[in-house]
Amino acid sequence: MPSSSRASSSRVVRTRAAALWFVVAAGFVCATTVHAAEHTVVMDGVKFEPAALTVSSGDTVVWINKDPFPHTATARGVFDSHEIAAGKSWKFTPGKAGVYEYVCTLHPGMKGTLTVK
Fold it and tell me: What does pTM read for this prediction?
């Protein structure tokens, strides 16, 4: 085979290999891209609604206080909103899977469960 044909053939192989690598890499990036969701828990009537919520790690949970007085969302050692004033909200993005029981420290009868997968 003449040297110019070998060089041309070698260039084609390198180009195809580079294109294949790009396609594989792009597919890997697309396959591993995860879109986090946002979930809402409403504090109203001295209760959490929903009282039980399941989310994925990396999702965001927003607690919105619709009562005319403050509340908290507190899972000891995991998260603590501190006081959420009337009409305000607080966000938390869990990073670790688990089942987290939480309470309003101002109204201990208000209880909720956050399950993170």
Answer: 0.72
